[in-house]
Specification:
Helix content is 37%, strand content 16%. The chain is an alpha/beta fold and 570 residues long. The chain has 3 domains: 189 residues, Rossmann fold (3-Layer(aba) Sandwich), CATH 3.40.50; 167 residues, Rossmann fold; 165 residues, Rossmann fold, CATH 3.40.50.970. Helix 7 links the parallel strand 5 and strand 6. Helix 11 runs parallel beside helix 13. This is Thiamine pyrophosphate-binding protein. Keywords: Thiamine pyrophosphate.
Amino acid sequence: MKTNEGVIKTFIEAGITRGFTLPGLGITWSLPAFFDRKDEFELVLARSEQSASVMAQVAGKLTGRPGLLMAQGPFASSTGAFGILEAYFSSSPMVVLTDTSCYDGFAQHGVYQTMTGDYGAGDAFAVMKTMTKYATYATTPQEAIYGTQLAVKHASTPRQGPAAVVMRTNIIKEDVPDHPRAKLYPTEGYLRSTPMKPDGDALAAIAEALKTAERPVIIAGNGIYMSRSGETLSRLANREGIAVASSYHGKGTIDETTPVAVGMMGNWAAKSANRMVQAADLILVLGCSLGPEYTRFRDEKMMRPGEQKIIQVDIDPLQAGWVLPVDMAVTADVADVVSFLLDRPGVDQATAERRKDFISALKTENRYGALPHYKTRPGTVHYADIMRGLDGFLTPDDLLTLDAGTNRIWATSSLPLRSPHQLVAPGGIGGMGWSTPAATGAKVTCPEKRVTGVIGDGGFVMTMDAIATAAEQNLDVVYVVANNAGLGMVRDNLGNKAIGVNFGDHDFAKVAEGLGGSGMTVTDADQIGDALREAHARGGPVVLDVKVDPAASHRDCSDYDDLPDNVSLK
């Protein structure tokens, strides 16, 4: 057995049967072993390491099992860092297989591309350690195989995240010794684990706190998303009259049209969510870090330790009581906590209805779910029109990916999602260009779903190579490009001193055709719903080039009222 054969054997033993790649040098040398097992393993060829990394991260995000990125050392650790960093900050399980590109012993001679850390070389291992849960540098065949086993283990174990195997290039085609001193064992034994069980007294205390609170609110975070416990949470909250706000990662984990849903909290979010958290006497945080962007950068009126009772539940004990002090920190899987609370007797119906009346009045006062109509220049639409079109189109069979900037802010603040867990959005580094490869990767991972990606024109150009991948993979995906001919959010923030933010108005429908797909141009709000339906009926990758009025602003849907004086939103 050679190193590359042992590595692919390990992946298949671990249940990883798909990888995303743009191969080079050491990864190229790995491919013959993958080819020999092509009946058991699917290799998806992307057009850039950036796109491949996002596709792998999304595969992990959607399945809860590690997505696999295979890329050459200097590029896995640079352009491929886009998806790796998103996985790191979003706790998406992911494995990165890469190499040192050292050309059979020339690392010390300054050969180009080398990533061994020698003089004149880059250091792939050092870079990977900065953005992964676990990284290993394998210099022997057995180290590569065992390191791969450990990478899968680390990526899969709470708190999930990316793990990397950096192989010395010259070992990839070497034979594994018949009797290595460090014996190799089957992968299965390394991946066995027993789920943690929450403390019974802590669960009882949470239940009592919820029962006696006047205005309780639950903050649903990434823990709810990754555990797929949104529907259970919705049943609990509606029965008890508990308001549910979400973090960005928790957006859309419950039906946002239910009486208890108050939307996503933060600056670029629903005002009703922020006001509900501010009004609460009890805040139960489920799988959310309470990062500054969720609390309007520590707005002291919104969350008030010592005045409000704050209980934080997280699978990682370091997360609870990290950003804000809490009254109670509980280490547990949030799905177990929600199930426990649902199984216990709750408040009486009168109390639940009284709580719901308060939530309803607060939502009405803050115009929850309202999508105003805006006048736009002829031949253009507003972001609100795109959200209206999506609202009338999405069904439980849909997945929706988002990107960065104004298009995302309108979606997270103003688009009510009715089907739990249909949103696939970047919330780690939240970089431009994520949505197009994310939508492509989502369709590869969940072929039974209808997939739509929303992205701005700036982000689309960064990763439009993913359209070619979708065409080559025969994927039916629709990409909605909110084309405002510029960097909308940056342009908004610069006001009348805008410089370096305006693009030409490109024809992305023609671009799609050149990449193997098809395209349509949308210039009127009334066309959006029909265009979405027609695009999905066509088959293959389809780009909707939606012309957006450059004057349309993210500020119209953001909660910027009364921000602390020291906060900059550039």
